[in-house]
Write a structure and sequence with these properties.
224 residues; single chain; alpha/beta; two-stranded antiparallel sheet; globular; disordered N terminus
Amino acid sequence: MSDLGSDPMTGSRSPVGIVLAGGRSSRFGRDKLAEPIDGEPLLWRPIRALAAAGCVEILIVIPPTGGEPDRPPDVAPPIRLVRDREAFGGPLVGAWSGLAAVTERRSDGAALIVAGDQPSLVPAVLADLVERVRAGRQAAALADPSGRMRPLPMALAVAPAMVAATALLDSGERRLRALPTLLEADVVPLAIWRRLDPSAGTLDDVDEPTDLASSSESGSPAQP
């Protein structure tokens, strides 16, 4: 396996970013990831956030058939398209497809998984999730204002996450939330991660066209 980079501070390999972009956009009514936000496709927002969080490679999981999305030409990490293993199988299937592509080149290290419709991800929050995995956790995720775990964004240790995702899908499970639960994720309380993201925008996503206006006002992802 080729070495995809290492963190000069910790000696650990840099994370791989995975963007889940295989959904139907049924509530939006058209391909929401292609919708412009501040002059660029919505999909470019999470890509840029993963790059700013230190990802050494970014994988975009797209449907098994169909066209390919545009990719930002000025992002430094290589961007690779990955076809989902089944059409519209849900985010757990998408996560499995991304992890399977990661393990083609490396079997250790961390992966950062985000949704393609998350426009306000803060790179410092993503980097903190990776550090929690490096500290010995198999997964790390955020808690929403109610205290409930939100499965995206999420950092995972690649090897155990691949084993767990495979077992869940083989059992008939389709909920992405089951993956960090099985891995006993470090769920970061809002009061902690909000120090890095005062607006708590990292959990925002776009379901309907009206959601784009507030996302545009939030601006581009901040640097860590």
